[in-house]
Please model this.
Amino acid sequence: MKFDEHLCMINSYQVLTGKISLEDLLEEGKIIHLMFNPSLPVIPMEDGVYDYVIQYFEVLEDYDKCAELHWAKCKAKNS
Model:
């Protein structure tokens, strides 16, 4: 399977924003790629995962996803 950067970013966006759980994504039976290690907690202010995914969608001018990721980052930071 060839690495698909866009699919990686979409999967990361969906998991980070809570649109899909990692378990549901894995149930699809496909090999998935994420921008982070799902077995480790994502620390919003240290890992930069949210920022990398936001930057990717900024380049695509998909500002709705950027906003959702920003709010998910703020929510994760405060929990």
Q: What stands out?
A: The chain has one domain: 5-78. The two ends are 36 Å apart (CA to CA).
